[in-house]
Amino acid sequence: ETFSAKYWDKWAKPDPNLEEFLTRFSKWVPSDGRVLDSGTGTGRDLLQFLEQGFDAVGIDYSKTMLELTKTRRGKIVEGRLRLMDMRDLKFPDNSFQGIWDNATFLHIPSAQVDQVIQQYHRVLAPDGILFIRVKELKADEKPEALVGEEGEERFYKFYTKEELGYLLERNGFEILDIDVKSEHGTGKTGNWVYAFARKPKQALISITDTDQEAQIIRQDVQMIFAREFNHVLLEESIGGSAGEGHSAVNGVVDPDGRILKFANYQDLPPDLRDRLDRGELYEF
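-> structure tokens emitted (284 positions)
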């Protein structure tokens, strides 16, 4: 309870580092759209969405934090706050046109990150927008750590830009923008990875495992890849030793039909490189 009060006092004011992201998010989401503020905490960002006219709802896992926000924000957030776990969203499918996750998802351990992104994908309507922002993984850091003063430690998972992008795309999202940006002046110094992603209206392609259909599928994927991402098939090599024949990889398509974009072979996460070399992925 003491920690929640300290946190509330520290982070309740508008964050200038978010102004650009809030503006872009608001332009992508329809003016009458429904927005989910995941990990609303002090209700700071929720308040901005409500003031802009969005039908916005905020969820948080901390009952104490929500009680503080109800008391201190007053009538404007009345009926807008829900006690809820992002790993198990209690909303129907296709409920929102926008999901805002600023510095909340980074508290989810690796074993559960797909579960959360799948929940976001489920409750987001087709063409809906997801904004997500996490701390960047530095070269000398562990990917997961407890951070904070003794007795107030919080779990953090850190990300590279490539890892966050792969996570979103393998769970059905189309990346609109993803990058790294530094932050100063708020106590949250350092680099942050942000992403804007869209839930496509429908899956781009369905891929089967049968050898008989593989060639036709690859031709279909080539056309889709060129049309959707302005890329063309540069080479087609299935399997092979690490790095061999992979100098011009635009992306790969996994057996579930998810198209994953990377500039070259070395940019692929290690697990994808291994799967590509074993012939489990289609390369473009």
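Residues 204-249 have pLDDT under 50 and may be disordered.
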